[in-house]
Amino acid sequence: GKSSSETSSPPSLSVHLDDSDTVVAGSSVKGHIVIECIDLDELKSLQIQVQGEERVASRHSSFSASNLFLLLSPPIQFNPKLQEGTNLFTFEAEMPANLCPSSLRKQSVNGRTGFIEYSLIALAETSTRQLESKKISFDVLEVFASRLHPVSCEDSLQGRIGGNATATASIHLSQQAFAIGDSPDITLKILSNKDVPHVTLSLVKTVQLKEGENTFQNTQQVARSVHPIKHAANST
C-alpha cells in the first residue's frame, strides 16, 4: 500500500511550449499543461493565461510604469476525472497581429531599462485544492512590411577631424525596420578633405511615458562600437 506521505502529496501543475519559444505575431502559441497526481482526483476548472507586459523606464528620470497590455485565456477541453500519474491537456492561443509588439528582454536585474515580455501561466482547481504553475516566458516578433524596403538618411556633421574641417556623412540601411535577432547592414559614406581615423556608431532608444497631459521622454544608448577606417578621405 501507499504510505501516508505519498497519499498526502498534492498534485503538481506545469505548463510547457510544444515548439519554439519564439512566435510571430498573428500566429499561435501552442503547448500543453501537465497535472501529476498521486491519487484519483476531480478537475473542476483549468485555465491557461497568455500575458503581455510592458514597462517603460528611464535610469535618468524618476518615472516608471508597467502595463499588462495583453491577457488571453483560450478555452481548454478537459476530462474532469484526473488519473493517477500524468494528465496532459493541450492548448493553443492566437497572438493578435495588431496588439503584440516585439519582445524586449530585461537588460538588468530590476528591469529599469524597460522591457516587453510575454508569458504563460496555468491555473487549475481540483476537488481538494487550487493549483498555479510557474510562469514561463516566450518571445514574440512583429511582422514588418517595411522590413522589405531599403532606407537611407543623410546629414551634415560639423566637427574637428585632424583640425577644423566639415564632413558630410550618409548612412544607408538595407531595410526600414528590424526585429529582435536581426543584424542590420549599415553602409556609411564620409566625404571630407581630411582623413578620418575611426567612426563610432551608437544604437539608441527613445523612452516615452505619457501621464495625462504630460509627456516624459529620454534617449538611452543601447550599444556602441568603434570602427577604424583603413582608407583615406572621401571613402565608404
Order of helices and strands: HEEEEEEEEEEEEEEE
Helical content band = under 10%
Oligomer: single chain
CATH uppermost class of the largest domain? Mainly Beta
Q: Tell me what the CATH architecture of the largest domain is.
A: Sandwich
InterPro entries: Arrestin-like_C, Arrestin-like_N
Pfam families: Arrestin_N
Protein name: Arrestin-like N-terminal domain-containing protein
How would you describe what is shown here?
The chain is an all-beta fold. Helix content is 2%, strand content 56%. It folds into two domains: 7-141, Immunoglobulin-like; 145-228, no CATH class. The strands form four sheets. Strands 2, 4, 5, 6, 8, 9 and 10 form a seven-stranded mixed sheet that branches. A three-stranded antiparallel sheet has the order 1-3-7, with no helix packed on it. It has a three-stranded antiparallel sheet with strand order 11-12-13, with no helix packed on it.
Write the layout of secondary structure elements.
Elements: H1 4-7, E1 12-17, E2 22-24, E3 28-37, E4 41-57, E5 64-72, E6 81-82, E7 85-94, E8 115-126, E9 130-132, E10 136-141, E11 151-160, E12 164-173, E13 186-191, E14 198-211, E15 214-228
Parallel strand pairs: 2-10
Antiparallel strand pairs: 1-3, 3-7, 4-5, 4-6, 4-8, 8-9, 8-10, 11-12, 12-13, 14-15
Provide a brief overview of the structure:
This is Arrestin-like N-terminal domain-containing protein. It contains 1 helix and 15 strands; from the N terminus they run H-E-E-E-E-E-E-E-E-E-E-E-E-E-E-E.
